[in-house]
Amino acid sequence: RQLAPELFEYNRQGAWNGHIPVTAINSAILVFAAVLLGVDQVVFSNERSASYGSLIEGTGEVNHQWSKSWAFERAFSDYVRREIAADLQYYSLLRPLSELAVARQFAKSDRYDAHFSSCNRNFHLLGERPVNRWCGVCPKCHFVFLALAPFMPKPRLVGIFGRNLLDDIAQLAGYDALLEYQDHKPFECVGEGKESRAAMAVLASRPEWREDAIVERFRREIAPQLGGDELAVAPLLVIDDEHGIPPAVWDKLRAHLAT
Questions:
Q1: Mean pLDDT of 205-218
Q2: Same domain, 55 and 124
């Protein structure tokens, strides 16, 4: 796929980009490839949190990443088995996990610290890209930093990003959106608001984090408005049984996650 250069000119004139359901497109392409190659599984890595959208006042829930959701996965899988190949399995290996559960698993190894990125600006076709793979100002950077913080030593996390995003008051509006505080969750592939609030509550209880600007403001202003059950991390780390993973694979995955 190659983008028409005229699109970039429209962007320069102020036009907005529309959303492309790229996961749905890739799913269809991979099912086609699987049939051609005689492969019996198409596997994605869409987590449980992708099933929840942004709550827009006066509109309701809008999920810009719906093609990553459990609803799409279930409907598309049923269609594939019914209309294309009865023995072709389409599923997501991370569906039982929340974003925080994925972050906890990722933090167990430092093997990819110097290589991974989830910053959208790092993948822009035009304009400057961040030198160290993280721009530090987009919603993806904000959320990944926050999601990893409860499960990583602080120096390691700051080393990955090159700075402490939670001690920069200029990032306040971005974190408010993630927390769904006076704003809605960004139209980005980030975790649920309750995940961000729970992660922030964990940091607010830790001496090494609690005085950082964003965390201190959460502890002082936002946390008192919320009940303890709204800030609990443990329920968000529970492995869900709602998924389409084949039993043989699921048994191995569940055993691995338990280690």
A1: 98
A2: no
